[in-house]
Amino acid sequence: MEIVEGTAEIDDLDGFLDRLTEIGERHGVTVQAFDARYVADAPHLRRAVDHTVRALDRNATIADDPGVEILLYAAGRRQINQALEMGVSAGECPVAAVVVDTDAHDDCDDPVGTSERPATTAETEAAAALAETLDAHSTLNETTNDQLRSFFDITDRELDATDGTISDLVRERVTLLVVER
Question: Is 30 in contact with 49 (CB distance < 8 Å)?
Answer without folding.
Answer: no
